[in-house]
Amino acid sequence: METNMEKLLHYVWQHRIYPLGTLHTEDGAEIDIIDPGLHNFNAGPDFFNAKVKIGGQLWVGNVEIHERASDWFRHQHQQDAAYNNVVLHVVSVADEQALTLDGKSLPQLVLTVPPEILRNYEELLHEDTFPPCYRIIPHLPDIKKHAWLAALTAERLEDKTNRLRSYLQRTCNDWERTFFITLARNFGFSVNSEAFEEWAFLIEPSAVGKHRDNAFQVEAFFFGQAGLLDDAAVAQERRDDYFCRLQKEYTFLKHKFSLTPMDFHHWKFLRLRPQNFPHVRLSQLVDLYFRQGVNFSRILEARNLESLRSLLRAEATDYWRRHYTFGIDSVENSKQLQNASLDLIIINTVAPLLFTYGKERLDESLCERAFNLLEKTRTEHNFITRSWAAAGLPARNAADSQALIQLKREYCDKRDCIRCRFGSEYLRKTL
């Protein structure tokens, strides 16, 4: 694992922030760095295809960077043939001579991190305020800020593609079922997303599809597979007539299709608003599945944001307009998905599916539709977007808010400021 100093050495090498004057190897040979190479974030040497002149001789190969030269041996590179083509070993401390598997003694460059960069990096690492680079944000040109946000939006969609590809693998490349699982996961709205995903994998389309013309049977199927019709899930005094009818219907379906429900303990209820209870969300999914007939094909046909909202605007079934759990009355309302919730579904379900489908089908127009959809959808409002807005970087739309979420989770939370374009600017600041 890289140390902080090693990360800084990578940064200094990549951005050519070298000390003034001529560079020399440890044994005195003059070094001219023509091209630092391509940064490698996977296994193998740190920089590929670098071009360096050492003592007047041009070398083209890889560069490895360590805090201490002895780390070469600690990482067992002397036993790895992948490091035979390293032409330069860059270190902060030359405490040993690096040797390759084929017995070559590597030239070593002792590289110093400029003190102002080290100071700025320490500031970022120890800053308690989020985002830690807030001091630099107001001073960055808009073009730099928005270019980084665009790259982060694409990065977030790529990350979501990995999850969707895992669904496709588990469902034998079934796009309709992958859509259903993704939609269900996002109906959990973070708190119950894992439980909804688990539940969705238990919904066998060939079984429930045979009863799709009967909303009550679909509801019994959905609630039963969620474990919410288990006697242990509902206190005796709350087992009203509707619960008993659903339970009886599920008992029939369970026997007919040899069903195995999930454990109801996986559902979370603490500090949930009534409209977010799993019972209400499952009822809305019944509405989408039964009344709306929503499927992936219809998602692909929807050409704009409003048509998607109209398609996904699920409403709770009759019983769940007056209840949020079995046997407890609530004020009657439609319990319909509102625009803010609909937009979250579109952001986290529709856009990633369009993007992934485009990638798999080599159809750039679908990928472009995913980006356009995010750009036309209203920004998410949460701690992350509010914090960046306070720092001088408000999200203009959902593409920006997704970018800022990616930035926090994959860079800020990991203190990986060196790979962040804002962090990179901060390291070189003179404010």
From TrEMBL:
<protein>
    <recommendedName>
        <fullName>DUF2851 domain-containing protein</fullName>
    </recommendedName>
</protein>
<dbReference type="Pfam" id="PF11013">
    <property type="entry name" value="DUF2851"/>
</dbReference>
<dbReference type="InterPro" id="IPR021272">
    <property type="entry name" value="DUF2851"/>
</dbReference>
